[in-house]
Amino acid sequence: MSGFSIYKKDSVANDVNHDVHVSVAKCYQCGKCSAGCPVNSEMDFPPSVVMRMLQTQDPKLEDKLLRSYAIWMCVSCEMCYGRCPMEIDIPKVMDYLRQKSLKENKVNPKAKNIVKFHRAFLDSINYTGRLSELGLIADYKMRTFNMFQDVALAPKMIARGKLHFIPEFIKDTAKMKSIFNKTINKK
Amino acid sequence: MKIGLYPGCSLKGGSREYKESVVAMAKAFDIHLEEIPDWNCCGATAAHNLSHELSLSLPARNLALAEQAGMEVLVVPCAACYSRLTIVQHELNEDAALKKKVVDIIEMPYKGTVKILNVIQFLQQFILEQLPAKIVKPFDYKVACYYGCLLVRPHGILKFDRPEDPQTMDEAMKLLGADAIDWAFKVECCGAGMSVARTDVVGKLSGNIIKDAVDRGAEAIIVACPMCHSNLDMRRPDINKVIGTNFEIPVIYITQAIGLALGIDEEVLGLHRHFVPVELPEKEVKTQMEEK
């Protein structure tokens, strides 16, 4: 990439462009992403507003965005990307914002349980290589103190042979640890 | 040709009937699907939400293992796994520096040449042509084919079917004798990974999908994704509570519908594992006189 950038050097928009090759300047605010977003009513900032906030390159708005609930409520359904006339990969921007929000300790308090769920999910994989549903739910409950959620579901799942008590370990669990240590758990 | 199978975690656990029906159907056509040895989780939404590098490395190890095992074709029935594996293969093929980085992380040789197929593509390439001759009991029902998100999006990378009004599942179901209805929620999101953290959202989104299918006269919803299935099936009480309904329409994997038409035993197809009972009305066999 050449030295010239249309973005300010320290802006989030510039980082997004540089790190994941998505240029938010292309957005002309048609609003199709927000209209099609299945969780727009749950969001403090729907996707087109997220794009606009990034375009301003205003540190205050960028900070607001990293502390928003919207970035965690996004379900990665890819509808916004599918309908964007400028083919802007908005889900990729959302991934970027989530990771930055996490790194800078700016996770919206309302989104804590969503993050805990993701963490419990990944910890299960780090440990066994595959997801153990029982392990995931138990871990999530421990993290959120939500002991009674879905308790009625467990016996029904067991009756249908859908819950395994012993997690499946892959043979090369050492490789899992090594992959996690070189990526998400990198110091 | 060696055909690989990446079942993914759901198909080993909560959605085991999907794998059971895929394997039983393939067997009926003398196709052996070989599981990737020692495969790991694709990382799903959690990985790509929290770490880009992890979300590339977990699927890359699986693809490298498939290459090592000499698999030219890899069948990935779970739409979410299919999406992750295909996106990773695409990203690494497009960016040599990123590919090198990921190869260094997984410490395995990786070419990126395995042909990845979702379940519908698998049907198209290996099953559908010979299917009509093997049907013993036509699946004579009005069905709403529900594709969800990750089977068709992002279209630029997956390049599968039409992104807004896909037809491939509808065509396959018509071959079985079903009436695949036109409806509006084919590619809407069921709420996906919010099933536990925001069950209320899943209730609303999945509720809208079921309501449209029922309003338009569907007798069954046909799916090809374990997340769609568990949200529409296992979360049915939440759905009925959130939108104030009492929907009883069954949700059936396309491979189960094919299995039924082939005369495969319901238990082998795992129908008894569903939360919403699969009770389809017995259809009278039409005589030629009645058809006229």
Largest sheet of chain B: 4 strands, parallel
Q: How far apart are the first and last residues' alpha carbons of chain A, in Å?
A: 28 Å
Approximately what portion of the residues of chain A adopt beta-strand conformation? under 5%
Question: Can you tell me the CATH architecture of the largest domain in chain B?
Answer: 3-Layer(aba) Sandwich
CATH class type of the largest domain in chain B: Alpha Beta
Ranges of chain B with pLDDT <50 over ≥5 residues?
none
Class from helix and strand fractions of chain A:
mainly alpha
How many β-strands of chain B, per DSSP?
A: 8
How does this structure look, described?
The complex is a heterodimer of chains A (187) and B (292). Chain A has 187 residues and is an all-alpha fold. Chain A folds into 2 domains: 12-107, Fumarate Reductase Iron-sulfur Protein, Chain B, domain 2, CATH 1.10.1060.10; 110-182, no CATH class. Helices cover 54% and strands 0% of the residues of chain A. In chain A, α8 crosses α9 (133-144) and α8 (112-128) crosses α11 (173-182). The two termini of chain A are 28 Å apart. The mean pLDDT of chain A is 93. Chain B has 2 domains: 3-119, Glutathione S-transferase Yfyf (Class Pi), Chain A, domain 2, CATH 1.20.1050.140; 133-276, Rossmann fold. Chain B contains 14 helices and 8 strands. Chain B has helices at residues 16-28, 44-50, 52-68, 79-94, 96-106, 119-126, 131-134, 155-158, 168-175, 199-215, 226-232, 236-243, 254-261, 288-291; strands spanning 3-5, 33-35, 73-75, 115-117, 142-145, 179-180, 220-223, 251-253. In chain B, β1, α1 (16-28) and β2 (33-35) form a beta-alpha-beta unit. Chains A and B meet through α6, α7, α8, α9 and α10 of A and α2, α3 and α10 of B.
